[in-house]
Amino acid sequence: MHFLAKTAFYNNPFQKFITELTQSIWMEKDEESRAMLIALEYLKKGEIVGIFPEGGRSLNGKIREGHPGAAFLALAAKVPVIPIGLINTYKVWPKGKSFPQFARCEMNIGAPLEFKEFYNEYDRAISQKDKAKIREIEEQVVRIIMKEIARLSNQEYPF
């Protein structure tokens, strides 16, 4: 599985080791599109990509608004999304700590989400370069993904 990882992790030897071990895709602050294209190529080859749609970890355990990257990958590669709800992970690796802490957390794995009903409309919007329609579809799909992640995390998705 290839995770998308912020280059900020590169500064911490432990995080760097983990991200290199998992063959993560390094994501530069201003080069998100490059990382997304690499992730897309992995998906098209049948490999698995892990992405955190919120773009970072929660500091207090509350779900944050999802970004459209996961939707883009699912729609462009025409692959399902396996939603995962994480509970109490903010206690395992609190912001500012160099290493994980011992804390109990949970992972709830949901059923695959398929977005076949969006493929034709998305492909049409791409071919017509209709940015507004592309964004609308991606926002719809990311909302579906995030609502399921919230459910699996015993939360509501307020966005």
The count of strands amounts to: 5
Strand order of the largest sheet: 2-1-3
Q: Which shape, going by the Cα principal axes?
A: globular
Instruction: Provide the number of structural domains.
Output: 1
Topology as a string of helices (H) and strands (E): EHEHEHEHEHH
Rg calculated over all Cα atoms: 16 Å
Query: Helical residue percent?
Result: 40-55%
- Spans of at least 5 consecutive residues whose pLDDT stays below 50 are none
Q: Which percent band covers the strand fraction?
A: 5-15%
Characterize the biggest β-sheet.
3 strands, parallel
Quaternary organization: single chain
Mean pLDDT: 90
End-to-end distance, in Å?
29 Å
Count of helices? 6
Which structural class do you get from the secondary structure elements?
alpha/beta
Compose a concise summary of this entry.
The protein is of the alpha/beta class and 159 residues long. Helices cover 43% and strands 11% of the residues. It is built from six helices and five strands, in the order βαβαβαβαβαα.
